[in-house]
Amino acid sequence: MIKDYLLKGHENGRTLEELEILTGKPGRIIRRQINEERRDTIILNLQDGQGYFLPDAGEADLVRRWVKQEESRLKLHALSLRAGRQALREEQQ
Asked: Are 52 and 13 in contact (CB under 8 A)?
C-alpha cells in the first residue's frame, strides 16, 4: 500500500519521484493506487511541491484546503463534460 510509504505532516511529504524510488513502481501506478486508497484514507497533495502526505493532528486546515482544491478540479471537469454532452446531443439531432 502506498500509504505505508507516506509520513504524517505536510513538511514530510514525499514527491512522486521519491515514491517511485521507494516502491519501484512507475508514477502512473502510484497515482492509481493513491486514488484507490483515498477511498479509505486521507492522502493529501496540495500541489505545492511538498508531495503526498498523511495529515497530522492539527492539520485540519490543510485537509480543508485539499478538499477545496479537489472540488475546484471537479467543477472544471464537470464543465468539460457539459461541452462534450452538448456536442453529442447536437450530433444525435
From this structure: yes
Let me know: does 2 contact 34? Beta carbons within 8 Å.
Answer: yes
The answer to whether 52 touches 24, Cβ cutoff 8 Å, is no
Q: Does the pTM exceed 0.70?
A: yes
pLDDT of residue 50: 94
Q: Is 9 helix (H, G, I), strand (E, B) or coil?
A: coil
Residues 6+ apart with CB under 8 A from 1: 33, 37
Contacts of 18 (CB under 8 A, 6+ apart): 51
- The pLDDT, as a whole number, for residue 64 is 97
